[in-house]
Design a protein that fits this description.
elongated, alpha+beta, Alpha-Beta Plaits, four-stranded antiparallel beta sheet
Length: about 300
């Protein structure tokens, strides 16, 4: 086994042995913030309009409404958050078979935070804003941002987003937001049948805005090609640090400057957008003068590991 390969594997082992809380404690505030923003968007701006959020939350709202309409549920305590939690159990079991254990653990925490927020944030008797479309816009932006922040923390709010992330991990060419829009066709078809056309249309508008905002904030599904040009004579430590700490491969090429005719080394790698800060920190630590080129939203065919958590 080559020296580089052996050192990379040893560094990967040390990295994987770091405690869960040591690596993830900084992301927990982001998960809390995401759950709070989502709950505010849904409960304060969407639900007073009697509209329905996307995904599992929309189905949870629908179940709550139907139970209230038939007299089984009084409506004094909002149960949508509870139903949302229960509906996520099969999704978590599905994720457990494919995703990393720490991702599943963080998702359970996120779902609990979302359930708590949806239960505690009061639902106003009347809409906060006068215009119905304005409430839809604000609700969509806030809820999408909240979900996006949760995804950015390497977690998931569960439901369709969780299934979408599992599909990204398994198949690669998916977007969480677009997957959510496609799945919501079923939900809003039921709303169209049970309620009326305006309810279905306004709910769909909210869902599209929310999914768009989610994809704007969520960065793990954006591939980035990184070209690193360095004049280091010995690049051994840099290679080991990148491959061992990030679990990413490197392609190394020898180059030279056209003007200076100095020897240079070109490294090419592909990472997820949320990994950029970590990669830049590693490169700058070993070579502050390195020249780095970032090319976002590229398409990758072949073996490429989607790191979502």
């Amino acid at each position: 086994m080559s020296s580089v390969k052996q050192e990379v594997r040893e560094l990967e082992k040390r990295t994987s042995e770091q405690s869960f809380w040591q690596e993830e404690k900084g992301k927990i505030p982001l998960m809390i913030l995401g759950a709070a923003i989502y709950s505010i968007g849904v409960n304060l701006f969407l639900r007073p309009l009697h509209l329905y959020s996307g995904g599992f939350m929309g189905f949870a709202q629908l179940i709550t409404t139907l139970l209230r309409n038939v007299g089984i549920y009084s409506g004094k305590t909002d149960l949508a958050g509870i139903f949302y939690y229960l509906m996520n159990i099969p999704s978590l079991i599905f994720a457990f078979t494919i995703m990393r254990r720490r991702f599943v653990a963080k998702t359970i925490l996120s779902i609990s935070l979302f359930t708590l927020g949806l239960t505690l944030v009061p639902i106003p008797a009347v809409p906060i804003l006068e215009e119905k479309i304005a409430n839809c816009l604000v609700a969509g932006i806030l809820s999408g941002t909240g979900v996006g922040l949760t995804l950015r923390a390497g977690s998931s709010d569960g439901g369709m987003d969780l299934i979408g992330m599992v599909m990204i991990q398994a198949r690669g060419h998916y977007s969480v937001g677009k997957f959510n829009i496609a799945a919501n066709v079923i939900l809003y078809g039921i709303c169209l049948f049970v309620f009326d056309v305006p309810t279905a249309i306004y709910s769909l508008i909210n869902s599209v805005i929310s999914s768009t905002a989610c994809d704007r904030v969520h960065t793990q599904n954006i591939n980035v090609q990184v070209d690193i040009i360095t004049k280091l004579e010995d690049t051994h430590a840099l290679e080991v640090a990148i491959m061992g700490s990030m679990g990413r491969g490197l392609t190394r090429m020898t180059a030279s400057g056209s003007y200076t005719d100095e020897n240079e080394t070109l490294f090419i790698t592909v990472i997820s957008k949320y990994e950029i800060p970590k990669l830049l920190a590693i490169v700058k630590e070993h070579d502050p003068s390195a020249f780095i080129i970032l090319n976002e939203r590229i398409r990758v065919e072949g073996h490429f590991l989607k790191k979502l958590a």
